[in-house]
Design goal:
about 15% strand; about 50% helix; 9 helices; elongated; about 230 residues; alpha+beta
Amino acid sequence: MPQKQKPSYLGHRGRLRDKFASGGLDPFLDHETLELLLTYCIARRDTKPAAWALVKRFGSLSAVLDAPYEELCAVKGVGEQSALFLKLIRAVFKKYSLEDVKNRVTIRTPEQVLEYCQASLAGQADECLELIYLSVRNTVIGTEVVARGGLDRVSVSPRTIVERALAAKAAAVILVHNHPSGDPTPSMEDVVLTKETARAAALLGITVHDHIIIGKGAHYSLKANGKI
């Protein structure tokens, strides 16, 4: 009797893993990266159709990882387990980025915290305001999301920000928030909040180093643009 042929995807999985083992992710296209990831949560099935469906639906690897869980579940061939796995990958990346920032000796420029800011807030469906607390030597001592809003605004008072910074025993603070619309240009409310917070914090010996707004593939530093 003729031997039963093994499914072609079994060999493809092995080739993807060998390719990663020998050269990392640099030579991978977005859909290939997703194919490889999905092999760890989809058994006995070709992961290529689901990977292509994800890229077609969201446009890029980063957009897939930023996509809401419910929307990932709705993609043909993905399902709840795979959607949860992709959100786990995104969460691990955020946690890793935070640890990388915390391990720096000092933070002096917006660029040094931008990677964490993008990891933390890029792709969020709603607007969030996060605080990065710094010591007197500008080392990161903690972070905290202090407000969540709707699609286009988040409401928080300068008093709340200063109170949270005092509770964290921070000598300085960086404000970070996202614009789900994708445009990082600050609103008048953003500028007013920053200036009022900086004035209130200064009275208590706390410095507001910057307010960074994260958009889609772009960011805006109020300090670098003379708004503080």
